[in-house]
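Let us practice reading a record.
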Amino acid sequence: MLKKSGIFTFLLFVSALAMAQAPSGIPTGEPEPLELNLVNIIVFIVLPVIIVILYIYWRRKKRR
């Protein structure tokens, strides 16, 4: 049993290290911050807030 769990742990760590490597053929650079224009504000700020508010409202309505 201990041998099987040790092998599983080893394979888990090896696979995690293999997935964490950056691809060699793609150029990497510094990520740029999000541009704050109207479309990005609506998509990334307003819509998620509305979805969370509607979800909370729906859960409270469902509970009653």
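A brief commentary: The mean pLDDT is 85.
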